[in-house]
Amino acid sequence: MRGLANLTNLPGLEVLVLENNPLLGNVDFAQFERMEKLWKLDLERIGMTRIANGLQRPLTELRRLDLSNNALTYVHVRMFRTFPKLEHLWLHGNRLYFLEADQVQTLLPALRSIVIDDNAWGCGHLATLGQTLRDRGIVIRHGECPASARAVHRVCCSDVTDVVDFRYLIEMGIRKEARFEQDLRELRSENEVLRQNLQQIQERLKQLAANFTQRDSPVTDDREDPESSELPSSSTSIEEYEDEEHTS
């Protein structure tokens, strides 16, 4: 399978299993937006390297989400904010070295269990992560860890936490720089819109000022004054009256 064009308009679908389709790649959760009754979504082994969530409205019935055996390296629980009833999350078999879960109780209040083994965890981060999850009553499910390997919360990890933290900081720096560039582009776009609006306002003000000036300028009326036009006739009438008196 190469795409989901034929599956996006299934509002009555409750279970969707897409596992073992590595050509699907980075599927955006927005493609499932019309599946309002979906309660189980299986995206195991689809070649996903990052999580994309463009949902405009939540999938309120989704309770089980499987993203295992992909190539994810970083996850923030904010990426699942549109699944308010999510109870079980599978993330094992990826390349995860960082999972930000500080807001898990706020963003995923219904989460009951999470599977995170077989990843690239640093032991220091895993200890903090595990404590955060357990403090919120979330069960950390796991597979088997070899006796010779280091484990925290019964999940395999590596002691090279400095390397993990360094990789994390590099990735976060890239993400922050990308966000800064995006914010800058948006500000420039908004500035251009404001500039155009200002030009329109200035042109409108000039037009209003011109109309106001034209309205208040003196108006020349070429018509004769009625009173002045009547004077000659009145004068003539008086002279004629005097002549008549003199004759009589």
TrEMBL record:
InterPro entries: Leu-rich_rpt, Leu-rich_rpt_typical-subtyp, LRR_dom_sf, LRR_TM_domain-containing
Region (Disordered): 211-248
Record key words, sorted: Leucine-rich repeat, Repeat, Signal
Top-rank lineage group of the source organism: Eukaryota
This protein's record includes keyword Transferase: no
Compositionally skewed regions (Acidic residues) per UniProt: 239-248
SMART domains in the cross-refs: LRR_TYP (SM00369)
Biased composition (Low complexity): 229-238
Listed GO CC annotations: plasma membrane
One Pfam family hit: LRR_8
PANTHER family xref list: ANTIGEN BSP, PUTATIVE-RELATED, CHAOPTIN-RELATED
Name under which the protein is recorded: AGAP007034-PA-like protein
Annotated organism of origin: Anopheles sinensis (Mosquito)
Lineage: Eukaryota, Metazoa, Ecdysozoa, Arthropoda, Hexapoda
